[in-house]
Amino acid sequence: MSDGTVRANIKSGSEVNIVLKEDQDTGYLTWGIVRDILTNSKTHPHGIKVRLTTREVGRVKEILK
């Protein structure tokens, strides 16, 4: 598992677990495939923001593949 706070670790098509905005309090993770990377900076302390193929948007907590 790679670090979800570094943009270079994430590619379109990556399999990830993200935390959705509404799940930030609970930390509930949502699995999906990255469609778009929305964060422009090289790193982000809370995780790189991505859009999944399901159109859900959240911050990457775990990179699975």
Automatic annotation (TrEMBL):
InterPro entries from the UniProt entry? DUF2196
PANTHER family xrefs: YWBE PROTEIN
From the Swiss-Prot or TrEMBL record, give the protein name: Alternate gene name: ipa-20r
Query: What organism does the UniProt record list as the source?
Result: uncultured Sulfurovum sp
